[in-house]
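Crash report, auto-generated. Payload:
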Amino acid sequence: MPLDRKIAYIDLTTGDIQTKPIPLDVRKKFLGGRGLDAYLLYNHTEKGCDPMGPKNTLMISGGILTATCASATARTHVMAKSPLTGLLGSANMGGFFAPEMAWAGFHHLVIKGKAKHPVYIYIHNGEIEIRDARDIWGKSVTDSQWAIRDDLGDQEVKCCVCGPAGENLVRFANVMTGIKNSGGRSGMGCVFGSKNLKGVAARGTMDIKIARPAEALEYNKRFIDQIVSAKVNQTQGTLGTPFIWGATNSWGGIRTRNFQYNQCEYADDIEPERIDEICQETMGPYHMTGCFGCQVHCRAQYKIPEGPYAGQYDEGPEYTSQGAFGGETDTPRALTVLVGNHLVDKFGMDNLETGSLISWAMELYELGIITSKETDGLDLRFGNDDAVIEMIERICYRKGWLGDALADGGIAASEKIGKHSFDYLIQVKGMSNLHSDERATPGLALNIATGSRGSDHLRSRPAIDLYHLPEEVLRKIYGNPVSYDGPLSSEHTEYIGKPWQVFWQENCYMGVDCLGICKYHTTFLGATLPNFEDWSKVLYYNTGLEMTPEEIWDVAVRCNMIERLFNLREGLTREDLKKGDMLNHRYFDEPCKRGAIDVVGTKIDKKKFIQMIDEFYEHKGLDQEGVPKPETLKILDLENEPSHLV
Amino acid sequence: MAKTLYIDYQKCTGCRLCELVCAVFHDGISNPARSRIKVMKWEAEGLYIPMTCQQCEDAPCMNVCPVKAISRDEELGRIFVDYDVCIGCRSCVAVCPFGAMNFNIKDKQVFKCDLCDGDPQCVRFCEEKAIDFLEVDDVSIYKKRDAATRISLAGKEAVALQAAM
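Recovered output after restart:
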């Protein structure tokens, strides 16, 4: 049964390994994946612990549906206290790792301590072994994985590893699996590095009995038909996420020159069709690939066509890399995006954080806040492609004054640089914003301001807000599985109704993250895709667990609340610019200069924005300080958490 | 007429859904080790090749079986194991040139592709049509068309190149 997958508690300091079942009542309260990770994190980390010290606890998990006959349940979740933000650290990635870990008998790993020398953990059919990784340390993300396979003499092993960035304690280093599946944001790779943990390898051939196989199979077919018939997924399956770039840039939603503009001009060379052309030229007509069991296959494959990295193979680039190495830095050249993407994949470093910080440094350089002294002679102007590529490498290897400073993240760097540099840093809770510009979309602005792992588009973004769906369609989506009869607006520039949409999306995304499903298979980019009602069935057919859509909703609310509790314990306060639910002043002060007519001139109205946060807190059951009311904790059955603090 | 599985590996995205549905359909269990089809992958090159039984005409597994448990089912065009006769010696596993005959230690049985009695689930679930179920004597026509398309494209490119010069 999927429900008999276990938790392993691994202490890297002592080498002690304990294996325990996951009690059914814990399953029903937190399901699995991110939700159960959050419960474990809240219980297994001390308040104020050093995120890079041995006391930080690292969770690696699959969802409750991982490796069952449910579509696109390939997601691996990684959680710990973040070395970047000092708050919740959380990363989610596709690929093939979590299913392999489930076939090897485990759904959750809880890793503590610090190994004496570099090691990797090997999980094989219920057994766990800590192995020497001294010869693998220093290798790139992909080379590390191939080296682990060779070490084990098994090419079917799946690994998740940190790259050189994690080893060098770059605070936004990724955990990665495969060529480019990245557990990005919030520096989980840095936590790997700080524990001398190179990676985790899994290989399993253990049975997972499906509760109702015939129904699960038929339902999976229906699910897939629904998913592949959505236009958004068909486009995604042809062009990958770069398809988002075209429309977003033309209406004015791309941060350019850090935050000076909201549209990247002369960007023909990084339009999705152009990127696709390169992929086709270098990889042939069938150049898309996918994660385990997924029919969307949104990852393009490419080889770098020319220059010093010519011929190097990689996957992507995603929309995020287009923004990070093309838009924000105003270097809209395909080669720069492809090489930049390749380098961060090799190094295991977060692309959005890297691009965002480089563009911030570029703005500081042009303003004279930093000079060629700090850049060690590098001409860090916007539009300088070579400088972007050079900075990526300097950050990973902490080369030069600026490379070293940026590797510690934006807030730490701004404290080193001083001179109002913080005012230009586009971040929330210490994590840089995606390259999207939310000044014309208050709903999206609320999403990044309140995301539990810092500024992020994958925690609660009501992306379908941009489709101007009729109100009755919005009501159908946002009025289930719990009723909502407050206001809703089809207009993306509006403020009304957005707090509920963000609250609903927050629970929807938590739902998929607990189940282990990819966000492209729910109400994220496509309005017609499955959510709570379908999950209830898919959960029952695969695991036998009977839960109503409302009960799954409750789990999602509970898991989001435990993340909130963790953040509050680590010092989140509502209006703190460095640790709170607040945006950089530029969102309120600087109007958009480019884009569509309803975008030019817009900025976020601070008063209305604060009202949105008030309303959002109300939906969540928080008081005006953003702290859960006692009755909320009672309803969510969280009043005794942390229940077993260790 | 009997149909056969036709694999066009170029179209394979490497997602391994075929492995999942194969195991669940036959055994009610999710476990790629129980799958009759297996995608071999070279991740560093982006190369994925699904491997399964070729239902050989002169099948080594059938020839080697000491108790004649393996026979050819002409109607469905498949090589079939009769478990009432099979002694589990694994000789067939040893001789299969494609690694398509497998053994499951729990069930203590060999197992191989049985074309799902005429409705192969791998084909049903593969949206890419990297694996298809086609009339045996018609398979090569698709390869011919693919090859011809390539020749035609090369010809057009040559003409364009000449025109450009």
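Post-recovery validation: Residues 1-52+114-138 of chain B form a domain with the Alpha-Beta Plaits fold (CATH 3.30.70.20).
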